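ARCHIVE RECORD
Type: protein–small molecule complex
Small molecule: flavin-adenine dinucleotide
Source of inputs: curated submission
Record status: active
Notes field left blank by submitter.
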Amino acid sequence: MKTLRLILGDQLSRPLSALRGIDRARDVVLMVEVSEEATYVRHHKQKIVFVLSAMRHFAESLRAEGIDVDYVRLNEKGNTGSFTGELGRALSRHKADRIVATEPGEYRVWETMQSWENAFGTPVEIREDDRFLCSRAEFARWVKERKSVRMEFFYRHMRRKTGWLMKGDKPEGGKWNYDALNRKAMPRNIKVPSRRRFNSDAMTRDVMMLVRKRFGGHFGDWQSFGWGVTRKDARKALRHFITNCLPRFGEYQDAMKTGGDFLFHSVLSPYLNIGLLGPKEVCEEALEAYRKGSAPLPAVEGFVRQILGWREYVRGIYWTKMPAYAQSNFLQADRPLPEFYWTGKTDMSCLRETIEATRRNAYAHHIQRLMITGNFALLAGVAPAQVEEWYLVVYADAFEWVELPNTHGMALYADGGLLGSKPYAASGAYIDRMSDYCHGCAYDPKVKLGTKACPFNYLYWYFLIVNERRLAQNPRMGMPYRTLARMAGDRRQQIVQEAQEFLDRLESKYR
Ligand code: FAD
Ligand code: DLZ
Ligand code: SF4
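STRUCTURE (tokenized, with ligand):
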């Protein structure tokens, strides 16, 4: 029996389920570059280069093993531009008896895959994507058995299951979570390690030229591309992180610094999300560093929690709740996304820094995503779908299974509290405490009203006022609402007026 084995751009893992049991004498691996995947949202130029170049390198590595790979390039004559179109063409080329694929990372592609068997009259086997530490079925069972589906409980379940950082049935060091030690601002004179960059080879440079020609109008710079595109590169990036950054990862996990695009973060998410690294090997390297005494427990626990906890958890939420999940809009937010998210042209220096770093690197670290661009969109009441599209476009690691729950649930509270127990809303004081952005800003985080006032300040209180009916009953919002209740009526009125004027000014710029 001849099998056509489809591999998508975020499935570049040799142990992928679709490759299991391959018959080298008969089977063909199909990989296709299709314009639809680059344009259903207009991805950052670096993200397209990263995915396509990694696909080409992966195809070469399979060929080197003697596997027959049919690789369709983007600019090849007759390329239909879609997965379905290219699968149809490949079936006529190869006369295969069946198709084998691995379940995709996005619901939209999952729906398309369901139509293939009927469309082609060829059996389609969609295998589980078992590159994760918790299967979709296991997560669904975990949800069914629980009243509260908070990440912290899931994380404990996963710690017990893996035995990582456990002493019998107790957590290593006596605590499940060391976040209380992980909230330091960055000292001014600390030396931050540089990011592990990779030079582009001829294959990557070819893709760059192609992307420049075909997608030159998309957001983002491609000149500053420094991503690795092979498993070997990704392993080097992992070693770099473990040696140079992990020991201080915890302490400065929430810190932000002007020009500090990567700080002590791992910058591994793009490699994990396209399959060049696996979550188990990444966590095991961090655990080994702890065992050897080269990284402290709070750093290692904090890092492992992001992968074993958050990454697996958001994937579980995505697949148990889609497609309805994307439709909720608990706060009824409906403003358009401000234009400066695309141009970076704003006099709010925290937003400018974050957006410019995003344009340069197709990367921003978690606190920039959550507490700067996410927090602003939350406070300004931007429509979730517009914010989600932005996040899916601009980051090299953005695939909907991980982007959507983080944006829709964590940053925007659009799911009404399924993912987080309260909105991550913060005023200028938080940003001032955790960063040095305010020093170079046109506004002052200590000023609450008037032309010098930090917009995050009046927007924060305005957010609480307009959402009082929806949020005041939340026990975790008790303190800010008690403060709001004590606020003088005329001050409250002034906040509403200044916030509305500010938001109207923003909107008028792109009418
Ligand atoms: P580190 O800080 O070094 O963390 C280590 C690893 O943990 C990451 O590589 C990642 O795999 C995992 N991780 C950490 N936090 C999360 C999280 N909240 N959810 C899932 N995995 C996590 N992450 C993506 O991979 N793709 C996205 O599209 C994405 N969109 C986001 C959108 C918003 C609004 C927010 C608030 C967060 C988003 N995240 C996303 C989560 C997180 O910001 C990134 O995973 C992280 O910044 C990647 O950088 P890093 O590899 O240096 O991470
Ligand atoms: C992101 C992306 C891009 C830009 N291009 C391709 C492509 O040409 N071919 C491909 O197989 N995958 C691509 N990808 C990744 C897919 O969008 C991703 O595999 C799906 O969203 C399923 O998760
Ligand atoms: Fe951002 Fe406000 Fe600080 Fe300016 S003053 S950098 S707008 S938090």
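CURATOR ANNOTATION: Residues 297-321 form the longest helix (25 residues).
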